[in-house]
Design brief:
The protein has 127 residues and is α+β, with helices and mostly antiparallel strands. Helix content is 24%, strand content 31%. A 6-stranded mixed sheet has the order 1-2-3-6-4-5, with helices on one face. Helix 1 runs parallel beside helix 2. The protein is globular, with a radius of gyration of 14 Å.
Length: 127
């Protein structure tokens, strides 16, 4: 099977990962945060805007591998404060409201950078 990938283009790439990998019809998108290539965190304190940025990056990666938002079957949303889940949920619904992938929202103690409020993973299946 052919393996295709999208580079993360972030400072954390040294750990040996890709933003997304496609093997056959399956696309897996790595945990994605709202960061610039040099690691600057975008929209500190704004969970909604960070989530929008994360989802934009995820959708772009899926599209680069031949998929669309309609192909997304699962998302995993990690937030540092579960009491604010509706902020992330609103942005998620704007992108996936019609698709309605299986999803989970989970609280984590912290992410790679203290200003990161959300990180999202996604799975897509492209027939």
């Amino acid at each position: 099977m052919t393996r295709s990938k999208v580079a993360s283009n972030r400072i954390w790439s040294e750990v040996g990962y890709s933003r997304a990998v496609r093997v056959g019809p399956l696309i897996e998108v790595a945990g994605t945060g709202a960061a610039t290539p040099d690691g600057e965190i975008l929209f500190p304190g704004d969970l909604y805007r960070q989530t929008q940025e994360v989802l934009k990056t995820i959708v772009e990666a899926i599209e680069q591998l031949g998929g669309t938002t309609a192909d997304v079957t699962r998302t995993r949303v990690f937030v540092t404060d579960i009491d604010r889940w509706k902020e992330a949920g609103r942005a998620h619904g704007e992108v996936f409201g019609d698709v309605q992938p299986a999803s989970a929202f989970m609280e984590v103690q912290r992410l790679l950078h203290p200003d990161m409020l959300v990180e999202i993973e996604a799975t897509a299946y492209v027939e």
